[in-house]
What does this fold into?
Amino acid sequence: VGVWSFDGNLADRSGRGNNAFAKAASFVPGHAGQGLNCSQAQAVVPDSPELRPAPGLRVECWVKLDALGPSWQTVLMKQRAYQLRVDPPQEGGHFAFFLDINGWEPRVRSRMPVKTGVWYHVVAGWDGKEIWLDVDGQRTRVRRSGVPLPSGEPLELGPFDGVLDELRIENPAA
It folds into this structure.
């Protein structure tokens, strides 16, 4: 569905044309090559049916936080569909993945809180029965079934105080 390496641009390398756009994209050293500096501005991928949640949805990326804020920090979000974020400190400061089916909860959380200055390999998905989250190979799961309502909202990348790199979204049933 989409592959964004952020090596100096916001182009979708999958060949499907799901390019991201930002008013002032900034690129910094990433996990591999360059990464998108999400501290400066949010990037947006226009809606397409293949970005809407369906069983088999899989989101993979590398994330490094430069600071932990007082609120949650959005890594990526498709409003009324799914989101990957860092929970606020009062909720533990963990990575969390949500799928909106008649509301955002329950979420699935990483086992350990996020630390600044560390690259994390984050993979999240939904198989139609559970949402799951892998952070550096440690998987957590939560039951989540139902039918998500179609969301025509764009996919938003950031904002959070850090770097996003090597984003890949797969969604074979969409």
About this structure: The radius of gyration is 15 Å. The longest strand covers residues 57-65. The chain has a mean pLDDT of 95.
